[in-house]
From TrEMBL:
A single GO molecular function term of this UniProt record: hydrolase activity
Segments crossing the lipid bilayer: 377-396, 416-439, 459-481
Short name of one Pfam family: Beta-lactamase
Protein name: Serine hydrolase
Gene3D superfamilies in alphabetical order: DD-peptidase/beta-lactamase superfamily (3.40.710.10)
InterPro entries listed in its UniProt record: AmpC-like (IPR050491), Beta-lactam-related (IPR001466), Beta-lactam/transpept-like (IPR012338)
Alphabetically ordered keywords of this record: Hydrolase, Membrane, Transmembrane, Transmembrane helix
PANTHER family, sorted: BETA-LACTAMASE-RELATED DOMAIN-CONTAINING PROTEIN, D-ALANYL-D-ALANINE-CARBOXYPEPTIDASE/ENDOPEPTIDASE AMPH
Domain annotation Beta-lactamase-related: ranges: 38-352
Keyword Transport tagged: no
The organism of origin for this protein: Sphaerisporangium rufum
Length: 503
């Protein structure tokens, strides 16, 4: 009864702390009216999931119609439409636009081998010489994380260093035959921009995209915490058992695939350009180039990826372009409706693989389309069971360790096999924990290190870590006990009642 009552108390406390003491988030600074239902939905979902902050921008028919901030930044101030967010892989559309502008100017050919612009580009496969600029843009180069796990490797010093590092990359398919989402494809494209323009990647984006569009709050930060580019934005957050902890972004090279830092105000302008080709009379791309960005490559089965955008069908059947961006402390997602030339971007200053970021985006687009937002699975329904299971494992395993001597006295006559039979169960959490990167790669095709996965799923790692640590300690105790195994009357009976002489 004592243990049952304590267990019940420890299960009730996290649930009691989750709901009553969750920070209440309401719509903050912004502009544009007539979107109260959207703002209320976002605020309610942020509060329910205990997400610290977000920024929203909505465009319709080529016009910015609504921009709003919610919650607080990593520094504690309110999120506004001018607050900086890392947009991660939404950067790819910027890189693709920069390349297509060079294509329109006749300075780059889409079907030319990359070696025409980067003579030093090569990979650990003779087929690498056939990789074209188009293959990189469409993510059909034949390179993949499984052949070059760049997320687990030391980062390069710059974009030219990234190109050199790919000499060790193993191709997993022939160029132009299969889709593999591979971040360094866009690093190579960014290096092509540098070489062709004769300017650093960040300077090329600033002068050809940011400044013409008046995106004054947008910059390029090539590293999580690095010296190049503009100063990084404020810390984002890691979500640990429902608690938002402000943390700096992990060190690492972001390059042409994830280095842009922007604001909701600026991303609204960017959505207008991506839906119409121009903003305030400044045209960046022709309609033909825009259509090319939106169109998956023909002849490649199973891919909906264009160039920095994924072509999808919404629940109402409309054609949409989507892309998300994921870092350890930030998440971003954008969606464009091709028919209405409208779009939405949501920027979050937190990162967690289990948090309902995409569900919030789906709810916003549903409301804007006149549909009902689906409730989805509450974040608490994921985090609280993980919390309870972690507590339960620690309590049960801790009790067994505390009472191990008493257990050993009762079991001193058991045969060795009975003690060893339970070892696989005790070792299983440690094996699973060690195998998480391999399992992630097997199911997603992406390769991440343990530290990155820990940041992405702290509560999962907490549960597995608690089970692995206590399991290894218990296994060690059982093995030591089985090896030393005191002999008693029960052991004599198992030996036929005859003590065996010691030889």
């Amino acid at each position: 009864m004592r243990w049952g009552g304590l267990l019940l108390l420890l299960m009730v406390v996290p649930a009691a702390l989750w709901w009553p003491f969750a920070p209440r988030i309401g719509p903050g600074a912004g502009s544009g009216g007539g979107f109260a239902a959207v703002d209320e939905f976002v605020a309610e979902r942020l509060t329910a999931a205990r997400l610290p902050g977000a920024a929203l921008a909505v465009v319709r028919d080529g016009r910015v119609v609504h921009v709003r901030g919610f919650g607080h930044t990593g520094g504690g101030g309110p999120v506004t439409p001018a607050s900086g967010f890392r947009i991660a892989s939404l950067t790819k559309a910027f890189t693709a636009t920069a390349v297509l502008r060079l294509v329109e100017a006749g300075r780059v050919r889409l079907d030319a081998p990359v070696t025409d612009y980067l003579p030093g580009f090569r990979v650990a496969d003779p087929r690498g010489g056939r990789i074209t600029v188009r293959h990189l843009l469409n993510q059909t180069s034949g390179l993949a994380d499984t052949g070059f796990p760049e997320q687990t490797m030391p980062p390069p010093a710059d974009l030219s260093g990234r190109v050199v590092s790919l000499r060790a990359a193993r191709m997993v398919s022939a160029p132009g035959t299969r889709f593999h989402y591979f971040n360094p494809n866009y690093d190579v494209l960014a290096r092509v921009v540098e070489v062709v323009t004769g300017r650093p990647y960040e300077t090329a984006l600033r002068t050809t995209i940011f400044e013409p569009l008046g995106m004054r709050g947008t910059s390029v930060v090539l590293y999580g915490r690095g010296p190049r580019g503009a100063p990084p934005p404020e810390n984002g957050h890691v979500l640990v058992y429902g608690v938002a902890v402000a943390r700096p972004e992990l060190d690492g090279f972001l390059g042409g695939e994830g280095s842009v830092v922007s604001t909701a105000d600026d991303m609204a302008r960017w959505l207008v350009v991506q839906s119409t080709g121009e903003y305030a009379g400044r045209r960046l791309l022709t309609p033909a180039s825009l259509e090319l960005m939106r169109t998956p490559p023909p002849g490649v089965a199973g891919t909906a990826y264009g160039m920095g955008w994924t072509a999808e069908r919404a629940p109402d059947g409309s054609a949409r372009l989507t892309h998300n961006g994921v870092l350890s402390t930030y998440y971003a997602e954008a969606s464009l409706d091709r028919a209405s030339r409208g779009g939405v971007v949501l920027l979050f200053n937190s990162g967690n693989a289990l948090a309902p970021y995409h569900a919030i985006m789906q709810g916003v687009t549903a409301i804007l389309d006149g549909r009902r937002a689906e409730p989805g699975l509450p974040f608490a329904a994921i985090e609280l069971p993980l919390t309870w299971l972690t507590i339960l494992v620690l309590m049960v395993r801790g009790r067994r360790l505390v009472r191990f001597r008493a257990w050993a006295a009762r079991r001193r006559g058991d045969p060795v096999w009975r003690h060893l039979l339970v070892l696989p169960w005790l070792f299983a959490p440690a094996v699973l924990l060690a195998a998480l990167p391999a399992l992630t790669a097997a199911f997603s095709g992406r390769v991440f290190g343990q530290h990155q996965l820990l940041r992405a799923m702290p509560s999962v790692y907490g549960l597995l870590g608690a089970a692995a640590l206590t399991g290894l300690v218990l296994a060690g105790c059982r093995v030591a006990f089985a090896v030393r195994r005191p002999r008693g009357p029960r052991a004599d009976a198992l030996d036929g009642g005859v003590r065996q002489p010691v030889r």
